[in-house]
UniProtKB/TrEMBL annotation:
Major location category of this protein: cytoplasm
Subcellular location: Cytoplasm
Protein name: Homoserine kinase
UniProt enzyme class: transferase
Residues bound to ATP: 88-98
Residue stretches making up the GHMP kinase N-terminal domain: 60-141
Lineage: Bacteria, Bacillati, Bacillota, Bacilli, Bacillales
Domain of life: Bacteria
Keyword Cytoplasm belongs to the record: yes
UniProt GO molecular function: ATP binding; homoserine kinase activity
Keyword ATP-binding: yes
Cross-referenced NCBIfam families: thrB
Length: 304
């Protein structure tokens, strides 16, 4: 009798300005998988944003599930996976990290690995190369993380942020490799000190839940946004308009091209309406932080 599970993984935003490769925030935008053990592999995309044609052996979830099983000397059994996604590809909303977390969970369930939460944070961050999006998708909420050379992740986990978030999704894609290509290899020491100070103040403000300061330091990044801004449609205009209409602060979502504003809960509807008027070529979504992280429900098998 085949086992089936529903796996839900939140998308995420990373950095929030100067929290480069370290700060992540899960969002209530989801990747959903229905996974069933069977005698051959099938992956079925049910959302229009997901690719219509692909080779299963090239699929990220297939590769991550098999690689995770192999780490524990297990043979990954074939599965039927039906996928739905609210996360557009290559837009800076953690679609790859969510897929990695999902792939690890597929292996965990199918191979009875009994992975701990720490295991999931470590493995997903190792696959991603940094812990920001991955830990947020595993844990939910906001995460401030570091990963050592051995691939062990240490995370401060913050929940119950009293704010809403608005994402500005342009029609263009931006691959992380392209966005990283414009970054300098070296910073002068005084510049680095100031950039690190701004990152420290952002982290401290997030822990203190000081929303005015959070917004201020979201907009004081020196590590990546000054260099990526040229790649982002209407970057400066969106930052300015969002602030004028009540946002605490606005930053790139990950490497972009999506941008994200943190706003007071009570202005959400009118804020979105105004931004839609100003930026009709962007898809603008009002969302909240997700506080559950990756979630699994076993689907009861009904006998016929």
């Amino acid at each position: 009798m085949s086992k089936s599970w529903q796996i839900t993984v939140p998308g995420s935003t990373a950095n929030l300005g100067p929290g480069f490769d370290s700060i992540g925030l899960s969002l209530s935008l989801y990747l959903n998988l229905t996974v069933t053990l069977q005698d051959k592999w099938e992956i079925i995309h049910l959302s229009s944003d997901l690719p219509k044609t692909f080779k299963i052996e090239d699929h990220l979830i297939f590769k991550i599930a098999n690689e995770t099983a192999a780490r524990f000397n297990k043979q990954m059994p074939p599965c039927r996976i039906e996928m739905e996604s609210e996360l557009p590809f290559a837009r800076g909303l953690g679609s790859s990290a969510a897929a990695i977390v999902a792939g690890i969970e597929v292996a965990n369930l199918a191979c009875n690995l009994n992975l701990s939460v720490q295991d999931k944070c470590n493995i997903s961050s190792q696959f991603e190369g940094h812990p920001d999006n991955a830990t947020a998708s595993v844990l939910g909420g906001l995460t401030i993380s570091a990963m050592d050379k051995a691939g062990i992740v240490d995370t401060i986990h913050i929940t119950d942020l009293d704010a809403s978030f608005v994402v500005f999704i342009p029609e263009v894609e931006l691959k992380t490799s392209e966005a990283r290509g414009v970054l300098p290899e070296v910073f002068e020491r005084p510049y680095s000190v100031l950039a690190s100070s701004n990152a420290n103040m952002l982290a401290a403000s997030l822990v203190a839940k000081d929303y005015v300061r959070i917004g201020r330091y979201m907009e004081k990044d020196l590590f990546h946004e000054p260099f990526r801004a040229q790649l982002i449609p209407q970057y400066f205009e969106i930052v300015k308009a969002a602030k004028e209409n009540g946002a605490y602060g606005t930053a790139l979502s990950g490497a972009g091209p999506t941008m994200i504003s943190m706003i007071p809960n009570n202005i959400g509807v009118q804020f979105v309406r105004k931004m839609e008027e100003l930026y009709p070529t962007h898809k603008i979504i009002l969302t909240k932080a997700d506080h559950t992280g990756v979630h699994v429900t076993e689907i009861p098998v009904t006998s016929k």
